[in-house]
Amino acid sequence: MKVTISSESTSDQAVSNLCPNLSASKRWKYFRRILKYRQMDFEFALWQMLYLFISPSKVYRNFEYHKHTKHQWARDDPAFLVLLSIWLSVSCIGFSLVLHLSFFAFIRFTLWVVLMEFVGVGLLIATLLWFISNKYLRTRNAEGTKQLVEWGYSFDVHLNAFFPLLVILHVIQLFFVKFLDHHHGFTILLCNTLWLIAFIYYGYITFLGYSALPFLRKTVVLLYPVPLLLILYILAFVYSCNIGHEVLDFYKHVIR
What we know:
single chain; 256 residues; mainly alpha; 68% helix; globular; transmembrane helix; Unc-50 homolog; transmembrane
């Protein structure tokens, strides 16, 4: 009996066998495109950023389309990463102006936010969820094999979830900086609510990202930290802890 295998299935299998993400050549092509802005689709990246607030599920439906056309779940266009980096830089400038930081303090603050909060924490979360999803959440397909979650896709999910968090905590919160030094009931409620919304949004978009993969099951476990966030939110209010104020104090200590 002659068995034929479609080129698309063969390509998908080859891509799934790459660990943890894309081949070295595709990774190199991805980063090389950062230097060629004319090859990047910034209009589509802006559309994704807008819909991460309006309807994040539509963004992940596009990832599914991308899988069928490019045979990988992860982005092959760095436009979203470039725009997110610009947002991050502008927000650091805004924070520095509001906090009246010197030039060198601004540099230290920016390096901390970019290298630790964005890259460092992002790599940690993406790697952790990549490991958990591949280890515990995968199901077998009709052929009895298991597809792998691409590490690059896990990092893309982090980028998607990080953008609304960045806008809420590094842009919108700037308009409430004068409340961060107060420990009254209303100001604590206002500032802490911003943090609660930001982290719940991060968790929800992360959940959508992994639930969009058809070969994963029980992705609802990724929403389990939400009740813990609500408990911490209530405790912070009960003990008059202004999270925004504490974070600003931490920033001042870091850039000192």
